[in-house]
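can u do me a favor
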């Protein structure tokens, strides 16, 4: 089809409908329908056929199937770790070293790092387990909710073996980053993700800001960090769990993935699935050995894991179909590339994609949906800018900063959006009001948002410098901007 502004219409419709309905999956369905009608010149029969073709491509793709199975394994393992009290065992072990509020908050951060293979696992485990300790020390549950939420998605995306990274590599693959015959960029998607890590400015700056806020007992905005909760009824921590039940599956997950990646490079999704499955079996096997769970409980746990991930799985499926339409039928990336050449300075692209992804994620409440939309636009656009030549990823100017901007904007928007599932789940696990949580944590996220925006704005001006200089110099500038904002906003407790 002839390139035109119509190629942008499905993306715009997705964002507008998501704002109106707060349902990213309904928005994706409408976007797919519109994209098919545009691609087939409003032919109903051809539209249905084209949608069915793209859906069949996704359903039968081996890597996509392995991704879905991996996510279900991770979710089921999270449920087992939570139900058996293994996360609580870690907190009970740490409680002997807690004498101050700083140590309690620091232990929450440490627990979040341990749970960083999945944001749902982190939120449900850390919020549920730490609630009793923060209540005991008179720490506001809104303060706990801020810590729990800030170290869920923003931290998980930095972990090479996690549900978020599995989704990102799948979206990069769908957008044309792979070593197959139809590749737009000839590279392994997981390798591209690894090279993007230093450019995920929001996550990196947020982690630094959390340690600074905890260490200095800083209060930002209206949150009373020591206010005691109205509802003091907290169920006691489970006592049957053990540290072995926590560290064995998590250690196996990381070890198997690293070993599998080294032994079988290029088989990321297969390695992820094997690591996830074996880790799940180890977690359940330990629960059986300790007689906490019975063999008959396993099918029910898998069903719970599927239900926990069901919405995310549907989002990935629909987002992948829309990504195929944008890339193959509407050529949205090529159209934007032509616009960029005439209307936008190239060095502003990391900043622009950060802002667009941030706005999209806030409006839709979905980081994963934002990944799929922006990646499916950015990869073809960058390919067109370099002349449609199939290059290795490191040969494409500003690829890593732009992807970093997309990931950071999506994570940030999901973090602060009152509509996101993680916001609601955090409020549930810490027993706080979702809107109060979203409002109070915004003041803590704002300095990091400013620092990230400054970093991405400066990053484009350094595009001719080396890989590390292009990442570390803007990160340092962003850290200074964030620190200045915190200093101006802080109110000592």
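np, heres the sequence
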């Amino acid at each position: 089809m002839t390139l035109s502004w119509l190629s942008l219409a499905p993306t715009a419709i997705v964002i507008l409908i998501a704002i109106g309905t707060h349902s990213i999956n309904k928005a994706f369905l409408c976007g797919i329908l519109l994209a098919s009608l545009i691609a087939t010149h409003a032919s109903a029969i051809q539209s249905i056929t084209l949608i069915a073709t793209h859906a069949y491509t996704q359903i039968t793709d081996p890597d996509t199937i392995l991704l879905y199975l991996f996510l279900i394994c991770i979710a089921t393992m999270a449920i087992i770790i939570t139900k058996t009290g293994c996360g609580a065992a870690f907190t009970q072990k740490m409680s002997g070293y807690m004498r101050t509020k700083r140590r309690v908050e620091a232990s929450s951060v440490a627990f979040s790092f341990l749970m960083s293979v999945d944001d749902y696992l982190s939120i449900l485990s850390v919020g549920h387990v730490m609630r009793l300790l923060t209540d005991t020390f008179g720490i506001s549950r809104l303060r706990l909710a801020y810590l729990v939420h800030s170290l869920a998605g923003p931290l998980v995306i930095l972990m090479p073996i996690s549900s978020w990274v599995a989704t990102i590599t799948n979206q990069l693959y769908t957008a044309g980053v792979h070593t197959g015959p139809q590749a737009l960029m000839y590279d392994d998607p997981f390798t591209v993700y690894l090279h993007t890590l230093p450019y995920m400015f929001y996550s990196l700056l947020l982690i630094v800001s959390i340690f600074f806020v905890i260490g200095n007992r800083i209060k930002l905005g209206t949150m009373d960090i020591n206010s005691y909760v109205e509802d003091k009824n907290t169920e006691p921590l489970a006592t049957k769990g053990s540290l072995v039940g926590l560290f064995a599956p998590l250690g196996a997950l990381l070890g198997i993935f690293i070993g599998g990646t080294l032994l079988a490079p290029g088989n990321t999704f297969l390695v992820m699935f094997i690591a996830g499955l074996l880790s799940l079996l180890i977690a359940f096997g330990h629960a059986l050995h300790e007689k906490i769970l019975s063999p008959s409980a396993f099918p029910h746990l898998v069903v719970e894991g599927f239900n926990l991930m069901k919405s995310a799985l549907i989002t990935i499926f629909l987002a992948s179909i829309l990504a195929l339409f944008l890339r193959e039928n509407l050529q949205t990336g090529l159209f934007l590339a032509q616009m960029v050449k005439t209307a936008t300075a190239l060095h502003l692209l990391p900043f622009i994609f950060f802002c667009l992804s941030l706005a999209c994620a806030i409006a839709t409440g979905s980081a994963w949906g934002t990944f799929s939309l922006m990646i499916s636009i950015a990869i073809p656009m960058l390919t067109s800018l370099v002349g449609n030549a199939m290059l290795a990823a490191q040969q494409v100017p500003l690829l890593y900063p732009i992807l970093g901007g997309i990931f950071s904007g999506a994570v940030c928007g999901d973090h602060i959006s009152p509509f996101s599932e993680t916001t609601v789940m955090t409020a549930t696990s810490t027993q706080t009001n979702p809107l109060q949580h979203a409002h109070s944590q915004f003041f803590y996220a704002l300095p990091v948002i400013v620092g990230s925006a400054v970093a991405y704005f400066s990053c484009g001006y350094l595009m001719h410098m080396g890989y590390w200089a292009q990442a570390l110099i803007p990160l340092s500038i962003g850290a200074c901007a964030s620190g200045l904002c915190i200093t101006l906003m802080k109110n000592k407790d």
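The chain has a mean pLDDT of 83. hope that helps!!
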